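chain below, 162 aa
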Amino acid sequence: MGLFMRFSTSLSSLFTGLSLSLLVTACSPAAEEQADTVTSYKITFGPHTVVTEDAITVADPEQDGRDVTFRVLYPSEEGTYPVIVYSSGAFCYPQNYDNVTEHWASHGYIVIVPNHMDSPNNEGPPNLSDPDLLLYSRVRDVSFALGAIGDTRPRGRFARSK
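prediction:
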């Protein structure tokens, strides 16, 4: 193995370890507590009152009928709104991002947040033996969200052309 290859492999291992430690740190309860004590940068809520639906569950036939749970936030006022599908960090609680998702909804967006199969919200730990499945599932959850939620809630509020 050449010097460059050994260096590249070592560097890759270093970045993988660093990424995992940052991920664990960012998603830990201590990080959540610390976030509560820090003033968020320019988070000012908009003119809309936000409605939050925490547990909309829809079975996805392309994932062998896996129940995918979504959190949906939207303005309480009638109207048509653009949509944001927000995919939370891997192995993180989607509710860790409440400040930003509520901010968007208060400014006139429908925000859909899938609870991915690697989320700690799920009953059991994720199956880490198949990382490709975790990645596929995350991408599929995002695309599935638009059709699944658009067909159920909040009716008549999606700005489908934006």
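The longest strand covers residues 50-60. Confidence is low (pLDDT under 50) at residues 1-25.
thats it, cya
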